[in-house]
Amino acid sequence: MNYKPIIIVAGEPNSIFFEIFFKVIKKKIKSPIILIASKKLLLNQAKILKNKISFNLIDISDAIKGKKKLKKINLIDVDLNQDQAFDKITSRSNKYISVCFDIAIDLLKNNVSNKLINGPISKKTFLKNRFNGVTEYLAKKTNTKRFAMIIFNKNLSVCPLTTHLPIKYVSKKISKKEIVNKVQLINNFWKKKFNKKVKIGVTGLNPHCESIDHYNEDQKIILPTIKKLKKLNYNIEGPFPADTVFLKNIRKKFDIIIGMYHDQVLTPLKTLYEYNAINITIGLPFIRVSPDHGPNVSMLGKNKSNYLSLFKSIKFLDF
């Protein structure tokens, strides 16, 4: 069986990505990997972490035209213009990261693969308030209008209606249209990927789904939308108070819980499963997955970082 390659953008030069990557590639992986990163940085990190790594050096045309047979690890070298890794995350790496993503999207558009993983990216420096997250960045790069971020675990997943948005703006972004869009995307994804009708729970916005304000989003927006979707035969319930929906006897009823904002659903999921979760963007022309952790610069070079989320990301795409 021929497995399409998994394209991996290494992400921030100064992060724990290479450490966990070295650990993961020792595991059994069926699909070849096309890593887009600095060769110099890769070898430097391998030396620091006392890891041996062999790879097949290719260029973009090799991948697109199939000039070289892909091996287990294939590297497209992107020049950092630096003699060594950066000592901290700064905007100096922005061009490097941008070029890496451009190469990846070029490969995806040319049907080299339909599978993308990106390593951790600094929202503060690379995205610089232009995008809420990499999810929105990739949506813009691919002209995708309808998309959703899922933090996935086979037992329970979550989807924030709004992503990396300051809390004071959340209520303004909640709409019937956006809830419907997310539910439709999630339902289609579960049908295609798992061949099942997804069971969806939805949180309210306000504590206990109540509000002392004259306008209650739970009653005016969320509840009517759920009633409409139920009539359209979606398997959906809510709104539930966010402080109880993750209790065992409630959460076991659902495959996924949609929350109104990022930390409302990511905090309990990470508490339940820690690194055993991956970030999936649905709605793009390809499947994009990323490990559910950041650059974690404080752990750089210590060789103690947990590789589980990256391993789960690769295994999810290993088909």
Structural features, described:
By secondary structure, the chain is an alpha/beta fold. The protein folds into two domains: 1-144 and 284-319, Isopropylmalate Dehydrogenase (3-Layer(aba) Sandwich); 148-282, Isopropylmalate Dehydrogenase. The protein has helices at residues 17-24, 39-48, 60-65, 94-109, 123-127, 134-141, 167-173, 176-194, 217-231, 248-251, 262-273, 308-316, and strands spanning 6-9, 33-37, 56-58, 73-77, 115-118, 148-152, 157-160, 200-203, 236-240, 256-259, 278-282, 287-291. The strands form two sheets. Strands 3-4-2-1-5-12-11-6 form an eight-stranded mixed β-sheet, with helices on both faces. It has a four-stranded parallel β-sheet with strand order 7-10-8-9, sandwiched between helices. α8 crosses α9.
SSE inventory with pairings:
Blueprint: E1 6-9, H1 17-24, E2 33-37, H2 39-48, E3 56-58, H3 60-65, E4 73-77, H4 94-109, E5 115-118, H5 123-127, H6 134-141, E6 148-152, E7 157-160, H7 167-173, H8 176-194, E8 200-203, H9 217-231, E9 236-240, H10 248-251, E10 256-259, H11 262-273, E11 278-282, E12 287-291, H12 308-316
Parallel strand pairs: 1-2, 1-5, 2-4, 3-4, 5-12, 7-10, 8-9, 8-10
Antiparallel strand pairs: 6-11, 11-12
Helix pairs in contact: 8-9
Count the DSSP helices. 12
Number of separate strands: 12
Largest sheet: 8 strands, mixed
Reported CATH architecture of the largest domain: 3-Layer(aba) Sandwich
Class by helix and strand content? alpha/beta
Which strand-content bin applies to the residues?
15-25%
Distance between the termini: 10 Å
CATH class of the largest domain: Alpha Beta
SSE succession: EHEHEHEHEHHEEHHEHEHEHEEH
| Helix share bin | 25-40%
CATH structural fold name of the largest domain: Isopropylmalate Dehydrogenase
Within the largest sheet, what's the order of strands?
Answer: 3-4-2-1-5-12-11-6
Q: Write down the overall mean pLDDT.
A: 93
Q: If you compute it from the alpha carbons, what radius of gyration comes out, rounded to the nearest whole angstrom?
A: 20 Å
